[in-house]
Amino acid sequence: MRILIVDDEARFANVLARVLKSEAVGEVDVASSAEEALVRMQEHPCDLLVTDLRLGGMSGLELMGEVRRRWGATDIVLMTAFAEVATAREALKRGAMDYLVKPFDNKELVALVAQAHARRRATVGTSGSTSIEPDGRLAGLIGESPAMRRVFGEIERVARADASVLLLGESGTGKEVAARALHTLSPRHSGPFIEVHIAALPESTLESELFGHEKGSFTGADKRKAGMFELASGGTVFLDEIGELPLHIQPKLLRFLQERRYYRIGGTEPLSVDVRVVAATNRDLVNEVKQGRFREDLYYRLDVVTITMPPLRERAGDVGLLARHLLARKHAGCSINDEALLMLETWRWPGNVRELANTIERAVILADGGRIEARHLPERFIERTPLSVVATTDGFDHSANERQLIEQALVQAGGNKTKAAELLGITRRRLYSRLKLLGMGSGEEEGE
User: Fold this and answer.
1) Which of 109, 300, 358, 422 has the greatest CB tally within 10 Å of its CB?
2) Tens digits of per-residue pLDDT, 183-222?
């Protein structure tokens, strides 16, 4: 493995080079500028580029772009001051592997090098598809709304990096599906995907579940047990409900994220594994930090890249798509009529996609596996059909029923259906479909 370190502080770069050489990680070279780095790369392309963000002349970010353009297989780790963390996080979305905040422990760099080496070995001759399918699907995620298209784009970009990802969003928005998509689209797709539902595990056994234990380390430990991180080696660990992690376990997770090393309970030998960590929560972790219930340093280590899953009420146009998908997946012989579909599409969905899935299951049972009609839906849907979407600041009132909503959008857009669709947060094709169903137009996509 060939590593190139780029920093205009020669002494610092040489110290890092000596550290890596002492670890026998491969051939290590240094460059004092981005321009010099490109010359070195032209002569001998490297497998891993470790560069400072702030360089004289061409910046580290510009160097990253040039390296990715010329040598797309090169992994990139950025070094940055705390004030530039936001820039480093943006670079992760463009494909950087990870970043280090100066001053950092040299063990963190050694761990990232080992990670890059393991990933390179695991991905030789393999590639994962990252294309969005025509019917609005991406590795298990479904949607054609602007909100979900944004999420699709973020997941596609971030999946190629190896940094930790924090998934935020209300309960039932599909954070677990998003975590699986990140794994499926990553170079780790052939490795294991291990889910850990923190809130569902007893606090007394949680540390053992995560890190494992040695025989005899506590009462009942009659044999050695591998933890979830060990079982996920070469793949991804999904820590669901990370906000529920007890304070006394948080330091151990922090150390693992920094060094990719840990000890089993009762163990004396450090273990090293190559895994990517994806965490999820519906809690406000910033507030949890302020209240002293979550470590600030752990939060920043998890929050390398954040992806927020939108609530279903902000995904106008996706409800019908999701409803048909749920029926096709588990109830192929069942269908749904237009009236029932309209009622689903105009519901606010406080329980998000999970509530929609439960509603579909109930309706299928009442319809006896046949065609779902309005009478098969819960009474609350019949009593209230307005689309109560969260109010926005664009001067557009989202609290009317669907017909009024569309009429209002068309008036505000001056009759331009493309602009009206944008106001409604749906596709132009979806707007024409609703116009036809509500008897407000021919449903043909005429010119404007």
Assistant:
1) 109
2) 998 888 889 999 999 999 998 899 999 999 999 888 888 8
